Every structure is written in C-alpha cells, then in structure tokens.
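Side project, low priority. Logging it here so it doesn't get lost.
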Amino acid sequence: MAHELNVFLHAKRVGTLSLVSGRLSFQYSPQALADPAFVPLSQSLPGQPEPFDDHQSRPFFAGLLPEGRMRQLIAKQAQVSSQNEYGLLEFVGGECAGAVSLLTGDLPQHKADAGSVQWLSDADLAAVIDELPKRPMLAGKEGLRLSLAGAQDKLPVVYDGLRIGLPMHGSPSTHILKPPIREVEDSVTNEAFCLSLAKGMKLPAVRYTNRCDYRYYESVG
C-alpha cells in the first residue's frame, strides 16, 4: 500500500512524496514542470518527469528534519521510529526550511488560514523556551507542524517587531528563535559575532535581532 504526501513550494504544489514498502519516491507533477516559473526543490532533484528513487529522494527530504536527540524526541511524540523519515515528515512537515510544505491535503493550510498566529506573552514565551528541550518544535501541539534541520533547539516563529507568536495551521513563520545552547558557553554571542563577521566580509548572512537572552534570526528561504 502506498502512502503519499503532497509537496508544496511557496504554496504551489510541485509533486508527490510516496512511501512504498519502506522506500521513498518523489515525482514532480506535470503542471509544475510546465510552469514557466518552475524552480526545482534542490539541485539534487532537477526538473524531470521521471520519479526519483529512494537513493535520490531520501537525502533531501530527510535533510528537512531535525537530528540527534531532537529527532528522537519528536519520533516519540509521533510514535514512529526515529529512522522513519516519512512518518516524521507527516507529523511535523507542515512548514520546513526553504518554503517547503508536505501535506496530506490538496492545498496548503495557510492558503485558508493565512495570518493564523498564537501571540505569546513574555510568560508564555518563557514557558515555550523551557519546553523546547523536552518537546522540540513543540511537536504534537495542536495546529503546529514545524520542522527545521540541525541538532540545536530552535523554533520557527512569527515576529512583527513587537510580538512573538507561533505560526498556527500552516501559517508561514518569519523568524527562527534560537535559545542559547546549554552545553556551549556564549553560543548566542558567538553566533551573532559570526553573522556580523560574514556581513562585514560582504557574504550573504541573515539579519538577527537580540532580545534578552534569546536571539531571533530572520528566516531565509
């Protein structure tokens, strides 16, 4: 029996991710390939009508997921194996890095629920920060399906210059919240320095905003 997730890029459906007998397969839709503005998901997945097999598909889609301890905790919430990339993407892949969404429906939820944000008070935000080490990406919270690669605690959020909120029901995030790494001294300061150095060297770098002991990085996609 095949399982399928529709894959969207910038709210446009570009193809289908399938799972058959434990093997992943991705195929672009004819409509996406015919679009003059077509952009492939990755250089490793160039535009072609033929499906990509497990060996070709898995590196990209597995790379949308967190790593290490974070993946194990999310897998526990989803009640699937940490090696089950399809099951994890089905659980948290509503908004991934690079404007990619994986959904069971025909349309991205944020087409209908754009602007759906749960704004957080300072107390709410502190509680979210405290919860991340135990519940990465707030996995399992109703209305949230978020995924970012890497092993560091982080969370996609909406920041309007004054308030921080959670992007609900597929609504797009604007920033990535990255608390300090508990095991690494001055991790926030070090990352801010590296970004400032990159900017000073005229290299592409995200903008960052500091608030208390948190740091918000503008998402780039």
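Brief comment: Strands lie at 3-9, 12-20, 23-28, 100-103, 117-120, 155-159, 164-167, 175-178, 208-211, 214-218.
Revisit when time allows.
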